[in-house]
Amino acid sequence: MKDLFVMFSLNTSEVEISTFLLVGIPGFESVHIWISIPICFMYLLAILGNCTPLFVIRTESSLHEPMYYFLSMLALSDLGLSFSSLPSMLRIFLFNAMEISADACIAQEFFIHGFTGMESSMLFIMSFDCFPAICNPLRYNSILTSSRILHRGLIFDIKSILLVLPLPFTLNRLRYCNKHLLSHSYCLHQDVMKLACSDNRVNFYYGLFVALCMMSDSVFIAVSYVFNLKTVLGIASHGEQLKALNTCVSHICAVLIFFVPIITLATIHHFAKHKSPLAMILIADAFLLVPPLMNPIVYCVKSWQIRVKVLEKLSLKSK
Question: Which residue windows are transmembrane per the record (predicted)?
Answer without folding.
Answer: 31-56, 68-90, 110-128, 149-169, 204-227, 248-272, 278-301
